[in-house]
């Protein structure tokens, strides 16, 4: 879904074709390789968006000794669906890293809805973390498992507190309009 959000957001700015987007993603940092985005995946998502009626072909560029390039534009339905796709990914995201494409395209959604989604997420994580901390009192500690329990406890504590801290920071920055 993040790939489709990326495609739709690029088409909000200007008409383009799949290979051009692939090129943009690979220069100067090879984000396509880092994200595992192959040309075939990109073409698949263009095709999927076209079948959904969210984009449409508007031009074919013919060049000698080169394959034809099919240029796409976003449709009215695509403009309407982009925010819905962004909200859906943000609601379903387990980590901030799962929301990066959405956050990069925050200008296409209502900040207040994004804040609400993030605050709900923060509340659930905080509640769950409080429950997990209560389990520590129930764990039987014996000398054989003491180091293992301390290791796991430290790992889980650091990870959860880190997640909570960065979600709070993200909420603050979205509210301030930092991006």
CATH T-level fold name of the largest domain: Arc Repressor Mutant, subunit A
Low-pLDDT windows of residues: none
Q: Over the alpha carbons, how many angstroms does the gyration radius reach?
A: 22 Å
Coarse morphology: elongated
Count of DSSP strands: 2
Number of domains: 2
Structural category: mainly alpha
Number of H/I helices:
8
Task: Report the top-level CATH class of the largest domain.
Answer: Mainly Alpha
Tell me the series of helices and strands, N- to C-terminal: HHHHEEHHHH
The CATH superfamily of the largest domain bears the name Winged helix-like DNA-binding domain superfamily/Winged helix DNA-binding domain
For the sheet with most strands, the description reads:
2 strands, antiparallel
Instruction: Order the strands across the largest sheet as they lie in space.
Output: 1-2
> What is the CATH architecture term of the largest domain?
Orthogonal Bundle
Strand content: 5-15%
Helix content class: 55-70%
What number is the mean pLDDT? Answer: 89
């Amino acid at each position: 879904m993040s790939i489709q959000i990326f495609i739709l957001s690029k088409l909000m700015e200007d008409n383009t074709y799949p290979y051009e987007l692939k090129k943009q993603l690979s220069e100067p940092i090879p984000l396509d390789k880092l994200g595992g985005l192959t040309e075939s995946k990109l073409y698949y998502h263009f095709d999927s968006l076209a079948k959904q009626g969210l984009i449409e072909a508007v031009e074919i560029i013919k060049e000698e000794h080169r394959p034809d390039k099919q240029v796409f534009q976003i449709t009215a339905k695509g403009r309407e669906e982009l925010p819905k796709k962004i909200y859906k990914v943000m609601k379903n995201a387990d980590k901030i890293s799962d929301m990066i494409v959405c956050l990069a395209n925050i200008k296409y959604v209502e900040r207040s809805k994004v804040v609400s989604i993030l605050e709900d997420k923060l509340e659930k994580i905080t509640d769950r973390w409080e429950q997990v901390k209560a389990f520590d009192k129930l764990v039987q500690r014996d000398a054989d498992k003491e180091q293992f329990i301390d290791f796991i406890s430290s790992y889980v504590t650091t990870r959860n507190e880190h997640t909570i801290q960065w979600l709070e920071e993200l909420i603050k920055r979205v509210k301030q309009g930092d991006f």
